[in-house]
Specification:
17% helix, 22 strands, four-stranded antiparallel sheet, eight-stranded antiparallel sheet, alpha+beta
């Protein structure tokens, strides 16, 4: 009799555990499936597409990517068996420049349906998430719009952008075939970069000081900044310059392995979290990615 009672109790507990696991829900943050620490790195960014408006935010200034990721823990999701048609969407792309090169994308529509990483065979839902995200981003968009605005023009298949000074006077506006990417790098400064063609050296960038209206020289290659310094990739080298004077301060061109012979042999260059080093990824003679971290001289850090 005791054995039978014990067996009944065991089966009951097993049933409870099974029911608990079956009803356990997954949050949108759980679905991201990456080390949480990457969402707080300074080079982590998000692109937000809301209708025809386009926004880009970086942890370098306002920590929007990190804060947004943390907010995703409140949204419980469930699998959708039959997807509904929806017109309005908000699309968010996480970009991990360091140490990851891949992205994570979220597409949330007005029917509260969620598609992760363009996997249209697996659709999820969270009631109220679309309106909740609109409310979440509303003050962030408003602050961004006071500094700059970027939008697509579907009729002409182009992009428009404007950059304002701190009094909301126009500094720069233009229409481009390629998407302009604008981010705040400080309270006074924004960086604009455009991929104008194929390859990293078809990329150009300009910084704007919203306090003075000053524009920097145009830099080529992939760009990063820290304080008053910018680093830019060149063929076989990374150049560190003063942002607005354009004066070259330091050149990195000695590597542990000989770089590849082709022109675009520098893959990326980013300042580390404290700005004291630059992490460079380059192609070696076997076309393999190599990573090397360079200490910046103390006289440069003191500027």
């Amino acid at each position: 009799m005791k054995k039978l009672s014990a067996l009944i109790v065991f089966c009951f507990l097993l049933c409870l555990c099974s029911c608990s696991n079956a009803t356990e829900k997954q949050t949108l943050q759980d679905m991201m499936n990456l080390d949480k620490s990457v969402f707080s790195l300074r080079n982590t960014e998000i692109d937000v597409y809301n209708g025809e408006d386009i926004y880009r935010f970086s942890n370098k200034y306002d920590r929007v990517p990190e804060d947004f990721y943390n907010s995703l823990n409140q949204y419980e999701v469930e699998v959708v068996t039959e997807k509904e048609d929806a017109y309005n969407h908000i699309c968010i792309n996480f970009k991990f420049n360091n140490p990851y090169s891949d992205t994570i994308s979220l597409d949330i529509d007005e029917k509260n349906q969620i598609i992760l990483n363009h996997d249209y065979d697996n659709v999820y839902k969270c009631e109220g998430i679309y309106d909740s995200l609109q409310e979440y981003f509303k003050p962030i968009f408003s602050e961004s719009n006071f500094a700059y605005m970027v939008g697509s023009t579907p009729v002409f298949n182009q992009y428009e952008y404007v950059i304002y000074d701190k009094n909301h006077n126009l500094i720069k506006n233009d229409t481009l075939r390629s998407q302009p990417h604008i981010t705040k790098i400080s309270d006074d400064e924004v960086c604009l970069w455009v991929q104008a063609g194929t390859g990293i050296y078809a990329r150009w960038s300009i910084y704007y000081n919203r306090a003075t209206g000053e524009a920097s020289p145009t830099y080529s290659g992939q760009t990063d900044s820290y304080g008053n310094l910018t680093c830019n990739t060149g063929s076989g080298k990374v150049v560190v310059s003063d942002i607005f004077s354009g004066q070259e301060i330091y050149v990195i061109d000695k590597f542990n392995e000989p770089p590849a012979d082709f022109v675009e042999n520098i893959v990326s260059a980013y300042f580390t979290e404290d700005g004291a080093q630059i992490k460079v990824v380059y192609k070696n003679q076997n076309n393999v990615d190599c990573e090397q971290v360079f200490d910046l001289p103390q006289n440069i850090l003191a500027q």
